[in-house]
Design brief:
235 residues, alpha/beta, 9 helices, globular
């Protein structure tokens, strides 16, 4: 039975992330999660993946950091068990780790990825991280437009695309283009305060929110507990 709700629920009883996002994320949207290495982009993606699976969705997850076994173990370490999701074929997991071991990417590496029809079978796609797949010499503005238009075409085909980027790994022109066209723009920030790592999910843009959302969501990550929303904020 098709779910006509125009929003994906990312609700879990153990945290308030869904509430802080206004009650869900809009379908057919383009979502940018930006932040430096170690800030928590991947953890946020993993938390979103787990809640989507728990709420009955199917998705494709492309990782440049983990192979399949390492990814399952990483999720288990956060108490986000996805083994049943794999058995039920709710997750199509694709790893780029073997390719990243090469000295040099093939030309148009991302182009070859997006030509694979299997990747786009599900309505939700997570690229973690997109910036590693877009390192290409002599890329120009026309090529950047073509990439963005491709993702927009996916939106028109009822696909929701989430991708993470490290801003230090992308051309500034292309990064600004991404920021300007996405429906949801999230900056994951990591600061040190009194010797403690303080993380925050900063929502810079949110088109079509379901309800009132928080522009800044402080969080921490704990083994066997996953992503935990902090009750208080940080200056």
């Amino acid at each position: 039975m098709k779910n006509d709700d125009p929003y994906f629920s990312i609700e879990l009883e153990r945290d308030e992330l869904n509430t802080n996002f206004g009650g869900g994320i809009p379908k057919n949207s383009l979502i940018l999660i930006e932040g430096p290495d170690g800030a928590g982009k991947s953890i946020l993606c993993q938390r979103i993946l787990y809640s989507l699976i728990e709420n009955g969705e199917k998705l494709t997850y492309i990782s440049t950091e983990f192979n399949t076994l390492d990814f399952i173990n990483q999720m288990e370490s956060l108490n986000y068990s996805i083994q049943q999701g794999f058995l039920d074929q709710k997750i199509l997991f694709l790893t780029m780790v073997p390719f990243l071991g090469k000295v040099k990417f093939e030309e148009d590496f991302l182009g070859k990825i997006i030509q694979s029809k299997k990747i786009f079978e599900h309505d939700i796609l997570i690229f973690d991280t997109l910036s590693f797949l877009m390192v290409k010499q002599n890329a120009g503005q026309e090529e950047y437009y073509n990439i963005i238009n491709f993702f927009r075409k996916l939106n028109n085909l009822n696909k929701t695309v989430i991708f993470t980027v490290d801003p230090t790994s992308l051309d500034e022109t292309f990064l600004n283009m991404l920021r300007n066209v996405v429906d949801i723009y999230v900056d994951v920030e990591l600061k040190m305060f009194a010797g403690e790592a303080i993380r925050s999910i900063n929502i810079k843009r949110f088109k079509r929110p379901k309800g009132v959302y928080k522009p800044a969501i402080p969080f921490r990550v704990e083994p066997k507990e996953g992503l935990i929303i902090e009750i208080g904020g940080y200056a």
